[in-house]
Write a structure and sequence with these properties.
With 465 residues, the protein is an alpha/beta fold. It is built from 16 helices and 15 strands. The relative contact order is 0.10.
């Protein structure tokens, strides 16, 4: 038995039993009592959009996080339940027509796939440009975009406790095999890190690695510990589980084992960072979340927090400042505010860059220095993570001031550059260089790097020169 099993507060049990995880999808969401009282148009929209974009909620989200007296405006309802405007009108009508006339499952699936392929399912070149290689062989289930950090997609972790409606990895969950990214072999991961000594960080992502049982996650992590890789300094785990199913770390059957695994990582001398996705303060307010955070931190792991800036959910400064203050209070480290990626239902959530910067600045001004670890607003675009530093007037021209927080070439990082001010711009591709320049400074080199279709050790040696 784990040491952590003795630490669980009995108040989190119901009649002596641990809470049981229950999912809601298109197949059974109508059984949620609160759904039955919603207007027909809202329920029909869930059906239409949920046949195109992935939809899954769970009993914790439904019972603890959503204010059912504030539908459809409740932020967590917007975050987890499909809304009509998450599809553009012609796409909504296309699917609605098939459903109304009683189309077969095959017709619905064909229509959904036709729409999905128009939604930029893999933005920022994540399939074409980020797949790493050992020698000449591509490694499935991995991405390597930035020199120091490699991403690994464990095959058993390609789902989540609930799905975010904004998720840029939505193609993982809609049953189209060629859109999936998943790796099944820890041996390849260790081999790649041995061949690429510039990699200091491995990020386990998905989906959500925390949907896996501890023994499965351990089968990926323990080989890394046993390999004694001198270059591996940090293991990161990207997860929404603290917000969507904090029982994972408190009352689930293997919660103690999971915490033991975390402690084995930190005891080995490798830093463990839990990259927690929180999109609204309400996700931080439950007692079970606070307990889960406390237990993770007791292993020596750190929790860093991140979320996109989302219309209808957290599109004001006060929400962000409240979220960052509460995260710091609970011992977490605010890390990133992202611009929502250019994929899926992006048009429902996106916010012009000028407004995004003002929201970030307004929130940043309201918090103390220890919450100002957060960076943003940041676009995870093809060339790298581009931060909007602000709007200014330079040489008589109104411009966006930008910089790379991460770049395909490390030499791009922290180098300011300028774009013409455009109040309608929502993404890097919407921007044009300022001061009469024909292109941004990185574009020629990015074209060369992106045509390489994946990283290997030789390419990173080129980047260092």
């Amino acid at each position: 038995m784990s040491y952590f099993d003795f630490q669980t507060n009995e108040s989190f049990f119901v009649n002596g039993q641990a809470p049981k995880y229950k999912t809601y999808t298109l197949r059974n969401y109508h059984k949620i009592p609160q759904i039955r009282s919603l207007p027909e148009d809202i329920r029909f929209a869930i059906e239409v959009v949920g046949n195109v974009l992935p939809f899954k909620a769970n009993n914790y989200v439904v019972e603890e996080l959503i204010d059912w007296d504030n539908i459809p405006d409740d932020p967590i309802f917007q975050l987890t339940f499909p809304q009509k405007t998450m599809l553009k009108p012609h796409h909504f009508n296309q699917m609605a027509e098939v459903i109304r006339y009683g189309g077969s499952p095959a017709e619905i699936r064909e229509t959904a796939n036709d729409i999905r392929m128009q939604l930029n399912p893999h933005p920022a070149g994540q399939l074409e440009e980020n797949t790493p290689k050992l020698g000449c062989e591509a490694i499935p289930g991995m991405q390597h975009k930035y020199q120091e950090t490699a991403l690994f997609f464990p095959g058993q972790g390609q789902t989540c406790h609930a799905y975010c409606t904004f998720c840029f990895r939505w193609p993982q969950f809609v049953g189209i095999d060629e859109l999936k990214i998943a790796g099944k072999e820890a041996e390849q991961l260790v081999g790649y890190l041995r061949e690429n000594p510039q990699v200091t960080d491995i990020l386990f992502t998905g989906g959500d690695p925390m949907v896996m049982k501890t023994r499965v996650l351990a089968s990926y992590i323990e080989p890394l510990l046993e390999a004694g890789l001198p270059n591996l300094r940090n293991i990161r785990i990207g997860t929404k589980s603290l917000a969507y199913w904090p029982y994972k770390f408190v009352t689930d059957r293997d919660s103690g084992e999971m915490l033991d695994l975390m402690k084995r990582v930190t005891d080995s001398g490798i830093h463990l960072a839990i990259m927690a996705h929180y999109s609204h303060p309400v996700e931080l307010e439950t007692d079970i979340n606070r307990e889960a955070v406390h237990r993770i931190r007791s292993t020596g792991a750190q929790i860093r927090t991140q979320s996109p800036l989302l219309r209808h959910i957290n599109d004001n400064s006060d929400t962000w400042s409240e979220m960052w203050r509460e995260q710091v209070k609970q011992g977490m480290i605010p890390y990133y505010m992202f611009i929502v990626r250019d994929t899926g239902a992006r048009h429902h959530f996106d916010i012009p860059l000028d407004e995004a910067w003002k929201i970030f600045r307004g929130a940043y001004q309201q918090v103390s220095g220890i919450a100002r670890t957060v960076r943003g607003p940041s676009m995870s675009a093809g060339p790298g993570k581009v931060q909007v530093l602000g709007v200014s007037e330079v040489a008589g021209e109104e411009v966006y001031v930008l910089r790379f927080l991460q770049g395909r070439n490390p030499d791009w990082v922290a180098r300011p550059f300028f774009a013409k001010y455009d109040p309608e711009a929502v993404w890097l591709d919407d921007l044009e260089p300022a001061f009469g320049e024909e292109q941004f400074f990185f574009e020629d080199e990015y074209a060369v790097l992106s045509n390489g279709n994946g990283h290997n050790a030789d390419e990173f040696r080129f980047l260092d020169n």
